[in-house]
Design goal:
The protein is of the alpha+beta class. It is built from 10 helices and 12 strands.
Length: about 475
């Protein structure tokens, strides 16, 4: 009975539940259709707004535009085929310094590379190039050009790295950078400072030989340009020229090499003032001793030693600013010859003094006791004029001697008066005959030296400047 009652109750509730379920499904379906319609409407509206506002279009990345991800740029363009041509163009901004001691030079320049890489070609309606900075260099292939015989080099990085990369639609690439490089210059100082130095900066590929990379000047001789205001303190830049050649390495083969050649002619005026002219003056000063009395030993010796030491100082100063080369330079020839002239002037006086002493000894042996009186009178004469006089050229010496003998018999007061009178007479006589006394009292070596030394030095200067200029 209970079971029959439950069945009747379920039978009554079944139609109501079915009706409610169908209404609920219809409501959810309607809501879903409405949401789908709104979504489609909003999507069409957003698309329409994007077309109207072009600034909202997201541009392509340069990796996608240049197809960087699609290629292996570790390989050179045209790998396995003919060598890739790489043109070089150089603009010299300045030559910063030339060092004779280190035998090198420092140069700042703009180095430009030109080549074609079809992997970087892109579509462009206006056929315009794209310019990038140094961040793209590490993602693509670039030539590995380096400077042969370079000691130091760097890329300028103020305010950013001075690197420019320009890519054209057809795949042509321009790679430019600003570099300062210090490189060796094999200098010849045999004619220094009347020399002309020829230096060169050499460019070459490090890894790719001539089978893989052909390095050449982009515009021939016009590929090398210089700033109009380049100047150096000690040199005059005669010419700049571009040339090319080949370099062979036994382990890797032949490589293309480019040369930036320039000639430097030294300004001589600085060295004339600092070396040549002082040396010339010291030589002339040494000739003054030939005109000084041969008995003035302190004066002539001091003058000779002073000129010798001054020449040594000049030679040391020149050598300190030059490399220690094993051959003779032109300035060494001039300074050593000048030093020889100064040294010979000292030796000349040593010879004069020695021969004078020998001559006096011979005269004393001949005169015997008279030489004692001669010496006493000479000493008294030197007390008045400070110079020694031989008896054959001493004009008033006999008068002076007679006065001295009379002074011994007269009173002391009268002696002083007569000596003063004699001294005045002697001084008056010397004033008019000083030149003749000096000429007659000099040794024959001094006489010849006054002519020989200047004449030989003048001839040497003619030969020297005629040979080196």
């Amino acid at each position: 009975m209970v079971l029959v009652t439950k069945l009747l109750f379920l039978t009554c509730l079944w139609p109501t539940a079915v009706l409610h379920s169908s209404q609920s499904q219809h409501h959810h379906l309607h809501h879903r259709q409405q949401f789908s319609f709104l979504k489609k409407y909003n999507s069409k509206r957003e698309l329409r707004m994007r077309k109207l506002d072009s600034t909202k279009v997201r541009p392509l990345k340069y990796e996608q535009l240049l197809h960087i991800e699609d290629h292996d740029f570790a390989l050179r363009p045209g790998f396995g085929g003919s060598p890739i041509p790489v043109g070089i163009d150089v603009q010299v901004e300045s030559i910063d310094s030339i060092s004779e001691v280190d035998m090198d030079f420092t140069m700042t320049l703009y180095l430009r590379h030109y080549w074609k890489d079809e992997r970087l070609s892109f579509h462009s309606n206006r056929n315009k190039s794209m310019t990038f900075d140094g961040r793209l260099i590490k993602r693509i292939w670039v030539p590995d050009v380096f400077f042969v015989h370079s000691k130091r080099s760097f890329i300028h990085d103020t305010t950013v790295e001075n690197i420019m990369l320009r890519v054209y639609p057809d795949g042509n690439v321009l790679f430019s950078l600003r570099i300062t490089v210090s490189a060796m210059c094999f200098m010849d100082f045999s004619r220094f400072p009347l020399d002309t130095q020829n230096c060169s900066l050499e460019l070459e590929s490090y890894a790719y030989n001539e089978d893989d990379l052909m390095l050449y000047w982009k515009h021939g001789n016009k590929s090398l340009s210089t700033d109009e205001h380049i100047s150096l303190s000690q040199f005059f830049i005669e010419e700049f020229s571009a040339s090319s050649g080949l370099a062979f390495y036994s382990s890797t083969g032949w490589y293309n090499r480019l040369f930036i050649n320039f000639a430097l002619r030294r300004h001589i005026f600085f060295f004339v003032l600092q070396s040549y002219f002082p040396a010339m003056l010291m030589v002339m000063l040494s000739w003054v001793s030939f005109w000084i009395d041969r008995r003035a030993v302190p004066a002539r010796v001091s003058l000779g030693i002073t000129t010798v030491l001054t020449m040594s100082t000049i030679m040391t100063g020149v050598s300190a600013s030059m490399p220690q080369v094993s051959y003779i330079k032109a300035v060494d020839v001039y300074l050593w010859i000048s030093f020889l002239f100064v040294f010979l002037s000292v030796i000349e006086y040593a010879a004069v003094n020695y021969l004078t002493t020998v001559e006096e000894r011979k005269q004393r042996k001949k005169k015997g006791k008279a030489s004692g009186m001669y010496s006493s009178d000479a000493v008294q004469a030197m007390a008045f004029d400070g110079c020694f006089h031989d008896t054959d050229v001493d004009m008033d010496l006999s008068t002076f001697s007679d006065s001295c003998e009379e002074n011994e018999t007269r009173p002391r007061s009268a002696s002083v008066s007569n000596v003063d009178t004699t001294q005045m007479k002697r001084k008056t006589s010397l004033k008019g005959n000083v030149g003749r006394i000096i000429l007659q009292n000099n040794h024959v070596i001094d006489t010849y030296s006054r002519i020989v030394f200047p004449s030989v030095y003048i001839v040497f200067n003619f030969f020297y400047w005629g040979l080196y200029i």
